[in-house]
Write a structure and sequence with these properties.
Elements: H1 3-26, H2 29-32, H3 36-62
Helix pairs in contact: 1-3
Length: 64
């Protein structure tokens, strides 16, 4: 496996972990305790992170 592919896979793995943690946080009681602006932004951030994850996965698939 090339170094580039490994770096992309590592980045994808780390991002997946962050997505999982943020998703769990949004469903937690702690989420309800943060200010309303943060509550509004975090789901947008999560959606963007998921899009980025899909892009990374596609880039990995397209590698020779």
């Amino acid at each position: 496996m090339s170094d580039f592919r490994i770096r992309l896979q590592n980045e994808t793995d780390e991002l997946s972990d962050k997505i999982d943690k943020l998703s769990k946080f949004i469903k937690s009681d702690n989420y309800k305790s943060i200010d309303i602006e943060q509550q509004a932004l975090l789901p947008i951030q999560l959606k963007t992170m998921r899009t980025y994850e899909e892009i990374l996965k596609t880039r990995i698939e397209l590698l020779p």
